[in-house]
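Below is one such protein, fold included:
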Amino acid sequence: MKSANDFNQIYLHREPVDFRQSINGLMLIVEQEMNLSPFSDAVFVFCNKARDKLKVLYWDQTGFCLWYKRLEKDKFKWPKKYPQAVFTLSIQQWEWLLSGFDISKIQGHQPLTFESLR
């Protein structure tokens, strides 16, 4: 699998999906519900209703890849408080989500930009 650093965007589909769906069904969700192109340089992340499984779909220029993760004793801390159906993750948020952290509660320092030393 490619690293998350290899993609321009990481999109999370906030609502749970039926995990009987495979590549074709998830592609339809990306196009029809997320209003995005499954052929873009992006990763699309889906969770089941029990929040113990993830499916990750991406296009690698030769075909679609489908990555699957099942937790044995825990649940993913899936962001539920946001009104939008599609949530964009940073690479750091993606790593936090996979590690079991609640990304809706974790906030890093705000980046600062300066024009000069004065």
